[in-house]
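Researcher: Structure for this, please.
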Amino acid sequence: MVRILGIESSCDDTSAAVFCDKTMLSNIIANQKVHEKYGGVIPELASRVHQQNIVPVVDIALKEAGVEKNDLDAIACTRGPGLMGSLLVGVSFAKGLAASLNIPLIEVNHLQGHVLSHFIEEKNGSKPAPSLPFLCLLASGGHTQIIIVKDHLDFEIIGETVDDAAGEAFDKCAKIMELPYPGGPAIDFLAKTGNPDAFVFAKPKVSDLNYSFSGLKTSFLYFLQKNVAENPAFVELNRADLCASLQKTIIAILFDKLTAAAKKTGIRDIAIAGGVSANSGLREHFRKTGERLNWNVFIPERKFTTDNAAMIAITGYFKYCKSLFSGLDITPLAKMN
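Model: Predicted structure, token format:
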């Protein structure tokens, strides 16, 4: 029986989770609402709030799990990718606690954690996990990748964005329409009442299984500028249709390549992960695509799509089982593949 404390602080959410083997005993997340009025995360503010939150968040996670810190077998923390100041808070705390308890420290790649969230087990029952190997579409604000997961710790990236990520396209286009931050959920909400066929936006052509979203953002901006010049109320009058049409385009771009990857590899267990996988339109399209193509689809619970320490702890468990420990001299990495 292995008890692991996971710590996540890659962006603006401070999170701590306690696991017993693969079972989640607690998963506490402290959000930072301060960034909403700025329309995006302010790195300096984020790191300061992490410093305020990390001790109480870890304390609550341990108490909710019914685990004393001296009962822990290891501490897993996000090493990267993310905001350097935010990562420093989590990594420094994890190093200090691991040293004081004389237990192993485990560094975790934040992106790997998103993918392995499919293996989290809960006390009241869990969803089936994909069989190895499986394909995973990882889509977030900073990354868009198609990954062959050969084993829990053996990943092969077979497609990725050559510029911007899908989540960034959602957020930047939302900002153009003057929607609140974060933009992805705002677009998802409005798209439910809009016509997805009202407007047509270009799909970038990229070789192989790679993605591109920068051109879509630019064409969306120019489209709005042209129509607003003719009618200043264009966005206000068409906001729901714009959101629905944009969302349909992004989903189509994502699944054109995912479908090609499934055909090329012959893998039928397909999963999605990352913040964009919380999008209701994408989740429904994934289900329908799976039924049509006879895929075994795996959709994470929404609470595991955003940044959380549960995904760090489960990854830490798999690394613990293989004695993949880190030295106390590790430093955060803003960029990691």
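Researcher: Any notable elements?
Model: The longest strand covers residues 23-30. The radius of gyration is 20 Å.
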